[in-house]
Design brief:
Rossmann fold; methyltransferase activity; 3-stranded antiparallel sheet; single chain; 9 helices; about 300 residues; 2 domains; alpha/beta; binds S-adenosylmethionine; SAM-dependent_MTases_sf
Length: about 300
C-alpha cells in the first residue's frame, strides 16, 4: 500500500464513510465537514473525538511527557517481573498475529515502536504496517527509530476506540499496554475486531496479575504500587464473532495477552434442535422454560 493508497483507505472514524483528499494531499475532509490534517512527516491526525474524553486526554498528556524515558522505564518493569526476556516475550506476542510476508497489519497504541519493529519484520517483503498512537511524541519517536526497508509503513494519530478504516481492512491487529486505561474499552475491542477480515487475528494484552498469584507477598506489593495490576482481563469486552480464543499470562504472570480469530458472524446456537431418541420433544428452549417454571415455583413457596 503506497502513501496515496493509504490516504484513500482512511475513512471517517465514526461513520466509516469516504473522506475527500485535498489536491495538495495535506488534509482529508469528512462528509460532515470535519478536517484531518496530514503532518509534515506523513503522520495523519485522525484523532477522534477532536476533544478527547478526560481519561484519554490524560493518557495522551502523560505519554507526550514521558516519551523519552519510556523505553528504559518499560524495560525495567519487565526486568522486575521474573527477570523476563522482554525481546523474546514481544516476539511471542507478535507470533500470535500469524503474519506472513505481504500481509497488511495494524498496530494500535504502537508507542515508541518496540513491537512495531517485529511486525515490520514479519510482513516484509512487500507487506504493509499501519502504526497508530494517541500520543504524537510517542509515535514520532517510533517513526524516527523504525527501519522501513522492503516494507510499507504508514502512521496515524488515532484513538483505538474510533478506527478510521472500513470493515475487514487488515489481516491482523495488535495492541499491547494501554487498553486498561482506554475510556471506551468495549468500543475499542469492537473496533479492533471490525477492521480485521474474517479468519484474521486480533492480539491484545495489558497488565492483569493472574488470579492465583494475587495473594503472594511480592505480587501484593505490585498490586499496591500500581493499581493497573489489579485490572481484570476484559473478557466481557470480546465481541461475539470470534473463535479460537486463547489467553496467555506473560511477564511473570503479571500481564495477559489474548488472541482470537475473527469470524464473519457470531456462533449460532440451535436451541430448538430436538434431542434424538426421546418419545417426547426435548430441546434447549424447553429445558430453559422448565428451569424458569421450577424457579418461579420455588420463589412462590
Ligand atoms: C504502555 S504504552 C505501550 C506502547 C507499546 N505498545 C509498547 O508495548 O511498548 C501505551 C500506549 O498506548 C497509547 N494509548 C493510550 N490510550 C490510547 C487510546 N485510547 N488509543 C490509542 N492509543 C492509546 C499511549 O499513548 C501509549 O503510547
Amino acid at each position: 500500500m503506497t502513501h496515496p493508497e493509504f490516504l484513500d483507505a482512511l475513512v471517517c472514524p465514526t461513520t466509516h464513510t469516504a473522506l475527500t483528499i485535498a489536491d495538495d494531499g495535506k488534509s482529508l475532509t469528512s462528509q460532515d465537514g470535519v478536517t484531518y490534517e496530514v503532518g509534515d512527516t506523513g503522520i495523519v491526525n485522525m484523532l477522534y473525538p477532536k476533544e478527547l474524553l478526560p481519561g484519554d486526554a490524560h493518557e495522551q498528556y502523560l505519554y507526550d511527557q514521558a516519551f523519552l524515558r519510556y523505553d528504559r522505564g518499560v524495560s525495567w518493569v519487565f526486568e522486575t517481573l521474573d527477570h523476563s526476556d522482554e525481546a523474546a516475550t514481544r516476539q511471542f506476542m507478535i507470533s500470535l498475529m500469524d503474519l506472513k510476508p505481504g500481509m497488511t497489519a495494524l498496530e494500535v497504541g504502537a508507542g515508541t515502536g518496540k513491537d512495531s519493529a517485529l511486525i515490520l519484520e514479519k510482513v516484509k517483503p512487500g507487506g504493509t504496517a499501519v502504526l497508530s498512537d494517541l500520543s504524537p511524541n510517542m509515535l514520532k519517536l517510533a517513526q524516527d527509530k523504525l527501519n522501513t526497508a522492503e516494507v510499507n509503513v504508514h502512521y496515524f494519530l488515532g484513538n483505538g476506540s474510533y478506527l478510521p478504516f472500513k470493515d475487514d481492512t487488515f489481516d491482523a491487529v495488535f495492541h499491547f499496554g494501554g487498553i486498561n486505561t482506554f475510556s471506551e474499552r468495549k468500543k475499542a475491542f469492537d473496533e479492533l475486531t471490525r477492521v480485521v477480515r474474517p479468519g484474521g487475528k486480533v492480539v491484545v494484552g495489558d497488565e492483569s496479575i493472574a488470579p492465583w498469584m494475587r495473594s503472594q507477598p511480592t505480587y501484593q506489593t505490585l498490586l499496591k504500587a500500581n493499581p493497573l495490576f489489579r485490572a481484570e482481563v476484559p473478557m466481557e469486552d470480546v465481541p461475539a464473532n470470534v473463535e479460537n480464543f486463547k489467553l496467555h499470562y506473560i511477564f511473570g504472570n503479571a500481564f495477559y495477552v489474548m488472541e482470537y480469530t475473527v469470524r464473519e458472524n457470531a456462533p449460532e446456537i440451535d436451541i430448538d434442535l430436538p434431542i434424538p431418541g426421546k418419545d417426547f420433544v426435548d430441546n434447549w428452549r424447553l429445558r430453559a422454560e422448565k428451569a424458569n417454571d421450577t424457579m418461579s415455583e420455588s420463589e412462590n413457596e
